[in-house]
Amino acid sequence: MTDTSHTGPVRVRYAPSPTGDPHVGNLRTALLNWVFARHTGGQFIVRIEDTDRERMLDGSLDRILGALEWLGLDWDEGPGKGGPFEPYVQSERKVLGKYAEAAQQLIENGHAYKCTCTPERLDQLRQRQRAEKKSTGYDGYCRNKSDEEREADSAQGLATVVRFKVPLEGEVVFNDVLRGPLTFDPSLLQDFVILKSDGYPTYHLAHIVDDHEMGITHVLRSEEWISSTPRHVMMYDGFGWEPPEFVHLSILLGPDRSKLSKRHGDTALLEFRDKGFLPGTMFNFLSLLGWSAGDDEEVMTREQIVEKFSLDGLNAAPSIFDITKLEWMNGVYLRQLPVETLSEMLLLELEAPDGLPESICRPIDRDYLTQLVPLVHERLKKIDREELSGMLAYFFQDTIELDPAEVVQKGMDEAATASALESSATALESAELFEAKPLEAQFRALCVELDLKPRQLFGALRVALTARKVAPPLFDTMVALGRDRSVARARRAASLLLHGQPIS
Ligand code: GLU
Predict the structure, then answer these.
(1) For the chain, what percent of residues have pLDDT higher than 70?
(2) Pocket mutation for ligand 1, best pick of 13, 23, 36, 49 (most atoms within 8 Å of C-beta)
(3) Tens-digit pLDDT profile for residues 145-193
(4) Alpha carbon nearest to ligand 1 atom 9, residue
(5) Residue 439: which residues within 8 A CB-CB, separation 6 or more?
């Protein structure tokens, strides 16, 4: 099946507005556009839509471009890259007069008009409409002005906007690639502003002018834009231009099926980077929000996703942003990393000021860390400094802070635990081969000797050696700590239980 009826190379765009921290949903849109372009051998264009000057936020553009780069979504045309339709920033395109000219074109061919209604009049109108329980919107006051009236307006130098003339009858129909033909009643859409009084275009005008000039063939954007699309289709009609194919991507929901928002936790893409998710995981995870390859594969490389992608695989049903699945997937990606690569990544995190506790000297021993990585590899879900430090600090510390109550296991008292730990220290001292397997055999025998369950002895030892109830396999931990430290920690814990303080 072909992707759409369009012929010729695919040209798609990601058109963010720099008004905040880029949201995962927004980057999902960018990603699917990118994948579609790469799959078809087309072009992926980045265009910055900064015409809403009031909502612009400092630093937002850098974060948007940073997020694209982090995900590996390289663009063929756009900021920093150039291209045949430079500039790719709308405020710069405005200076070139592109939008004013387009608005003028619509005025001349009878599809738009100048409006000089004051904010006060519009406010009163709104209040009246509300009082009469009518839907609010422009009443067309300036639509039918005579030429003389318009000239008088312009002689007065009144603030002027340009409005699109919405047809008063008929219907607006457009085809959504995922949903089929959608029909709208234009009488519900009042004459909307396309050029503001400060000369800036509204989004509606600006993006159409640019999509047309830049030869955009498919518009993949979030479902939230469906209600605006009838306006766009009417404008394409007014210009006499061919509209692109519209593909409105499914809405993202939180696990409770309400619209994904801050309430559900992190929603800014770079927060996931900062919390230790790998770009490969994020790429894979975002690609599956509203798209599936049609097989059961979920974990796929970027190349596989590009290869398997098709518009047919997109689904209009809402997609759930499931953080548990994301964490699971990140674990899968982390486990796929070679130990050396992971070790290098962990080194950077652990050596950071908020990595391992300050008391641990930097630089940390690279080889030792590489030896430890296999012990935690299985349990890693993300590269989180605090979590990593908790998992690994005790390997680097001379002494660890113990909670005696945690050392004592169910069915044992302090004295019995201390004595079991003493026997363990002696066993460790005398162990012939300080390796996990023989140590385990030796300690299982010790359990029998001491009439303890493995759960009891191993539990006490685990806390004594690591100060944690959850830690890597006990005997691997002993080996990684080394004989001397293992013996010392077992003895110290015993002494703590008996005397309330360690005897050094
Ligand atoms: N600038 C719009 C946005 O923020 C673009 C919408 C579109 O893709 O048409 O999201």
Answers:
(1) 98
(2) 49
(3) 998 999 998 899 899 999 999 998 899 999 999 999 999 999 888 999 9
(4) 221
(5) 428, 431, 433, 475, 478, 479
Sequence letter at residue 172: V
What DSSP line would sit under 253-265, residue for residue? E-TTSSBP-GGGS
Q: What is the pLDDT of residues 189-232, one digit of tens each?
A: 899 999 999 999 999 999 999 999 999 999 999 999 999 999 99
Measured from the Cα of 203, ligand 1's closest atom is 1
AA letter at 271: E
Taking CB atoms and a 6 Å cutoff, what residues make up the pocket around ligand 1? 15-17, 49, 203, 207, 221, 225
SS3 396: helix
pLDDT at residue 2, as a whole number = 39
Measuring CA to CA, how many Å separate 343 from each of 279, 329, 340, 350?
A: 17, 19, 5, 10
Ligand 1: residue whose CA is nearest its atom 10:
16
Residues forming the active site: 262
For residue 266, which of 27, 30, 57, 48 has the smallest C-alpha distance?
27
In 3D, which of 270, 264, 219, 246 has the Cα closest to residue 49?
219
Residue of minimum CA distance from atom 3 in ligand 1 = 16
Burial of 256 (0-12, 13-18, 19+ CB in 10 A): exposed
Distance 175 CA to ligand 1 centre (A): 19
